[in-house]
Design a protein that fits this description.
By secondary structure, the chain is α/β, with parallel strands linked by helices. The protein has 3 domains: 4-170, Rossmann fold (3-Layer(aba) Sandwich), CATH 3.40.50.300; 177-210 and 217-357, P-loop containing nucleotide triphosphate hydrolases (Rossmann fold, 3-Layer(aba) Sandwich), CATH 3.40.50.300; 362-440, K homology (KH) domain (GMP Synthetase, Chain A, domain 3, 2-Layer Sandwich). The chain is built from 12 helices and 15 strands. A hairpin with a 2-residue loop joins strand 2 (40-47) and strand 3. The chain is elongated, with a radius of gyration of 27 Å. It binds guanosine-5'-diphosphate (2 copies). One guanosine-5'-diphosphate (GDP) is lined by residues 188, 190-196, 237-238, 300-301, 303-304, 335-337. One guanosine-5'-diphosphate is lined by residues 9, 11-17, 119-120, 122, 145-148. It comes from Paroceanicella profunda. GTPase that plays an essential role in the late steps of ribosome biogenesis. Associates with the 50S ribosomal subunit. GTP 2 binds at residues 188-195, 235-239, 300-303.
C-alpha cells in the first residue's frame, strides 16, 4: 500500500495541471458508480521513485453563489477525508484570496497533514504570493510550477518520509505476474480422494515438470496446466506413493496440511460426501482461514450420492452453520474418480484467487464507508458518539483493511461484523478471509 494525496485549492490555481503532471496518462479510475460524485478524479501518481494515489477535485468553477460554494466545500471535504496527505495549492501570481482562506480553514480542521505549495511560481511574478502563503500558518511553503515542472523535486522530498510511513513490507506481495503458477494445496482427511484428484488434474501428459523436491521431505509440488491455468499443486498425501500405513497418515495430515497451507494461495478443502464436515475437516478449514488463504470446498465422491439435490442443500447449510468464518466460500461437487466437475472446480479456484487478490481504491472504500455509517450509525454504548471516518486497504492476499475510529475499543464486535459483511457484499469478496483492523484516529 502507499498513500493517497489530495490536491486541494480554489479553482484555477493549477490543480488539474499538477494532477495531469503527476498522473501522466495513468489515469486509473473515474468512478461512475451511480449516486457517486463524478467530480473527484483519482489517478496513480508517479514522482521519482514514489508511487501513490492522487485525488483532484476536478472541474470546479469559481463559486459565485451559495449553493456552488457549498458544493465546492463538500467536495473538498470529501477529497480531504479520503487522503492521507493534502497538498494545498495557492496561486503565487494572484496572491492569497479570501477563498484560499476558506480552504485553509477546511484543511486546518481536518487534522490531516498539509503541504502548502504556491503554484505558478516560475519566474519572478510569483515571489510575493509565495511569501504571502506563509501567513496561512500551515507551515512551510514550496514554490511550484505545475505547468513547467519546477519544484517537483522539493515535493518529492517532502513526500518521501510520508511514503515510508505508509509503506508495508510484505514478502507476500509481488507484482502481478500472470505467468506465475497459482499455488494450490489440496487438504482433506485420509481417503477423501486427494491423490485421486491430483492425478485426475494432472493427467499423464499434462505434467509439465516431474515431481520437484518438495517443500518438505513429505510433500511434493507439481506444476501443470489445468484447462489453460498454470497451477502448482502442493500435495500432502497425494502423489507420493502411499507406502505409509494408514495410522501414520492419519497423524500426519494436520501438520502436513499446515506446511502446505503456508505455501498455498488457494486451499481446496476436499470432503468425502459420505462423511462431510467432521472434526478434522473443520480444523483444516479453520487453519486455512487463519492463515488467510482463499478457500474452495470440494465435495468428492459425488458419483456415490443418490439424492443429489437434497444433499447439496444440506451441505450448503452445514457449510454456513459450521464454518461461518468462511462465509461465501464456493462449494462444488466433484467425482475425482470419474473426472467429473473438475472444470467447475478450476473455475471456482480461479475466481477465489482473483477475489483474494482484490484491491479496492481508498476513494471507493471511503465513499462506501460514508454510506454505511450514514445508513447505520455506530451505536454509542457509553453515550459517546463513535466516529468512523476513514478506511483503506493496506494489502491484498487476503484483502486487509484498516479503519480509523475515534473510540476503537468501544466499537462493538457486531458493528465490525456488519462492516465486514457489507464489504463482502459490495465488493464481491466471497471465498476469501478478510482482515479488518481498527486504529485510533479521528
Ligand atoms: P484548477 O482549476 O485548479 O484545476 O486549475 P488548472 O489546472 O485548470 O489551471 C488553471 C490555469 O492556470 C490554466 O490556464 C493553467 O494553464 C494555468 N497554470 C497551471 N499551472 C501553472 C503554472 O505552473 N504556471 C502558470 N503560469 N500557469 C499555470
Ligand atoms: P487420499 O487419501 O485423500 O489421497 O484418498 P485417495 O485418493 O487415495 O482415495 C481414497 C479412496 O477413495 C480410493 O479407494 C479411491 O478410489 C476412492 N475415491 C477417490 N475419489 C473418488 C470418487 O470420486 N468416487 C468414488 N466412488 N471413489 C473415490
Amino acid at each position: 500500500m502507499s498513500f493517497t494525496l489530495a490536491i486541494v485549492g480554489r479553482p484555477n490555481v493549477g490543480k488539474s495541471t499538477l494532477f495531469n503532471r503527476l498522473v501522466g496518462r495513468r489515469l486509473a479510475l473515474v468512478d461512475d458508480q451511480p449516486g457517486v460524485t463524478r467530480d473527484l478524479r483519482e489517478g496513480d501518481a508517479r514522482l521519482g521513485h514514489l508511487r501513490f494515489t492522487v485525488i483532484d477535485t476536478a472541474g470546479l468553477e469559481e463559486a459565485t453563489d451559495e449553493s456552488l460554494q457549498g458544493r465546492m466545500r463538500a467536495l473538498t471535504e470529501r477529497a480531504v477525508s479520503m487522503a492521507d496527505v493534502c497538498l494545498f495549492l495557492i496561486d503565487a501570481r494572484a496572491g492569497l484570496t479570501p477563498s484560499d482562506k476558506v480552504f485553509a480553514e477546511i484543511l486546518r480542521r481536518s487534522g490531516k497533514m498539509v503541504i502548502v505549495a504556491a503554484n505558478k511560481a516560475e519566474g519572478r511574478a510569483g515571489e510575493a504570493g509565495y511569501l504571502d502563503a506563509y501567513s496561512l500558518g500551515l507551515g512551510d511553503v514550496i514554490p511550484l510550477s505545475a505547468e513547467h515542472g519546477e519544484g517537483m523535486d522539493d515535493l518529492r522530498m517532502i513526500l518521501s518520509p510520508v511514503a515510508e510511513q505508509f509503506a508495508v513490507t510484505d514478502v507476500e506481495e509481488h507484482e502481478d505476474d500472470s505467468d506465475r503458477p497459482m499455488q494450490i494445496a489440496i487438504l482433506g482427511r485420509p481417503n477423501a480422494g486427494k491423490s485421486t484428484l491430483v492425478n485426475a488434474i494432472l493427467g499423464e501428459e499434462r505434467l509439465l515438470t516431474g515431481p520437484e523436491a518438495g517443500i518438505t521431505r513429505d510433500s511434493i509440488a507439481v506444476t501443470t496446466e489445468w484447462y489453460g491455468t498454470k497451477v502448482r499443486i502442493f500435495d500432502t498425501a497425494g502423489i507420493r506413493k502411499k507406502a505409509r500405513i494408514q495410522e501414520k497418515l492419519e497423524k500426519m495430515s494436520v501438520s502436513d496440511g499446515l506446511r502446505a497451507v503456508r505455501f498455498a494461495e488457494v486451499v481446496v478443502l476436499l470432503l468425502d460426501v459420505n462423511s462431510p464436515f467432521d472434526q478434522q475437516d473443520l480444523r483444516l478449514a479453520d487453519l486455512a482461514e487463519r492463515e488467510g488463504r482463499a478457500v474452495v470446498v470440494a465435495v468428492n465422491k459425488w458419483d456415490t450420492e443418490d439424492d443429489k439435490s437434497e444433499k447439496v442443500k444440506f451441505l450448503r447449510e452445514e457449510l454456513a452453520r459450521l464454518l461461518p468464518q468462511l462465509r461465501g466460500v464456493p462449494l462444488v461437487t466433484i467425482s475425482a474418480l470419474q473426472g467429473r466437475g473438475l472444470d467447475k472446480l478450476r473455475d471456482a479456484i480461479v475466481k477465489v484467487h482473483e477475489t483474494w487478490n482484490t484491491r479496492i481504491s481508498t476513494s471507493r472504500l471511503n465513499r462506501w464507508l460514508i454510506g454505511q455509517v450514514e445508513a447505520h450509525p455506530p451505536p454509542a454504548p457509553s453515550g459517546r458518539r463513535i466516529k468512523l471516518r476513514y478506511m483503506t486497504q493496506v494489502k491484498a492476499r487476503p484483502p486487509s483493511f484498516v479503519a480509523f475510529c475515534s473510540l476503537p475499543e468501544e466499537l462493538p464486535e457486531s458493528y465490525i461484523r456488519f462492516l465486514v459483511n457489507g464489504l463482502r457484499k459490495t465488493f464481491g469478496l466471497e471465498g476469501t478471509p478478510i482482515r479488518f483492523t481498527l486504529r485510533k484516529g479521528e
